[in-house]
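Model it.
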Amino acid sequence: MHAYDEDLTQQVMQHLLHRLRLDAPPLGRLGEAGELSVALKEAIGSGPRPPADVLRTYAEDLEPTVVSCDHPAFLAFIPGAPTKAAALFDMVLSASSLHGVSWLEASGAVAAENQVLRLFADLAGMPAGAGGCFVSGGSAGNLSALVVARDTGRRRLGLDDRAPVRIAVSDQVHSSVGNTLRILGVEALVVPTEDHRLTGDALRTALDAAERDGGAPVVAAVATAGTTNAGIIDDLAGVADQTRARDLWLHIDAAYGGAALFVPGLREKLRGIEHADSLVVDPHKWMFAPFDCGALLYREPHLARAVHTQDASYLDAIHGADGAGPDEWNPSDYAYHLTRRPRGLPLWFSLAVHGTDAYRDAVAHGADIARWTAREVERTDGLELLREPELTVVLVRRTGWRPEDYYAWSKRLLASGAAFITPSVWEGESVARLAFLHPGITRETVRGILDSLVAED
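Modeled.
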């Protein structure tokens, strides 16, 4: 079972190379449960099957029913668009069976990952001692960081490890943060926003009220650099002013918007990010890394080590008799994980191959085409621009449409292979939502999508 099989290798490589050579892979379609059940009915049995047959099942029955996130016209949710270099190196990573838990096991891989984390920390303006690790994405990063925020806050206040505390979040915060707080048993202090944006003034008002209400102490605040639904950036500088004045932990969820750090014209929108105590960025979104790849940074990594380092006799070897040296960085000390793949390596390879200027230009393209799309919407009868895009999300109202009209339009676009766009809800109303990240998206494609909106009855 573990022996090298030349025929199997050639067949799989042929399939992979075919897909990598495509400028745009097939968009894909929604699969039916019945057809997939039939296709998979005898896929796994007690005996072997010819590799060509199994690969054919995938290529002909499974792959077509997966919508390709790396298609330029995948404009739903927050898409991903890995570079060819990153995708290729992800194959190297998978074939190498690297165990990225510790410096002892994977020092070279950890050093390369840390080089990327250092780049992100420098772009954000964090201090030289900042560091962290790669995790699976924003959800894992938010959970790992807010555990540290909670426990650090308790220690600062002299509370025991079960004392109730609160963390301030806006009413627009990502769903994963709400889920994290439920997992941690931490109450959310929900701060109302004006125009969907958390401001320093709103946070100050909420914190002042919290000090008088007799509830659990607030130990941290969460700000967002690029909300998922509309790409809105909180008042990071104003929020940071409040957290610094009150000695609260500041966590910034920049899973989507963090890539804007590469672009000087967008960097000013993120002013204040340099004050983060913890920062999450998802390279598998707007930084063109393969799934799954999230970056987690701490201003003072020793605080995370105090929370996340796992203690067991079988782990003594990775920490050393006298503790790990200053350069012996164990990624398992900075998040809730232990076993992990060094998922930052494909990004490291792509950055090294292409250079940061290419990343700057590719990131900027998404913002540029979002602004162009906004102007096209304004010029198109029957369409209304709901707000000026701050990053790459454009919200559009089609005059006279009900929710079912948007969903029917979405299904027709996907069925035709033109684009994948899912409606969203904005201020209680169903709308069209276009999220631009792929540097291959063209104005002609976008114009066709807008034309399809007004062409529908």
